[in-house]
Amino acid sequence: MCHEFVPGNAFPHYQLPDHTGTPRRLSELQGDDPLILTLARGHYGPKERQQHLDLAAFYPKIAVAYTQVATISTDDHHTLREFRASVGAQWTFLSDPERTVQKDLEIAEYTDPEHNPMIRTRSCSSRDSSSTAFITAIGSGAGLLSSTSGTTCSR
After folding, report:
1. Model pTM?
2. What is the topology classification, in CATH, of domain 36-147?
3. Tens digit of pLDDT for each residue in 5-54?
């Protein structure tokens, strides 16, 4: 699926239900702006909770930079709403219990196979040279990975 992440392209048209139950596409959420995408294994992880609290605190600076944010979690609808509210997030949370996006983007678990947090193994850039797409994997040992335009895929 990484071949779709090339400069000038939007994120793929994954359609997942958001925290209100409305089906949303990643490409629609991104629009013409850069997108910070986080993948979370669920509300129960204290590291993920802390990382989302930090992201929520930083969100006002992200928003003024014309950058979108979305979180994809394995939680069901009700738990997803609770997770979003508990961290004070102002961005869209999407539910992907089947881990479609994780599998398609080849984001594999290697630190905790029992709970299978989504740790990044691949990043791909998106959009044009004036904007950068970010893929963030939330989980044990993960961090923010930025992919620069002109780079199609890296491990």
Report:
1. 0.70
2. Glutaredoxin (3.40.30)
3. 565 567 778 899 999 999 999 889 988 888 888 888 888 778 888 999 99
Tens-place pLDDT, residues 92-142? 999 999 888 888 877 766 666 666 555 443 344 344 433 333 444 333 333
What are the extents of the domains in the chain?
36-147
Residues 69 and 18: their CA atoms lie apart, in Å, by 13
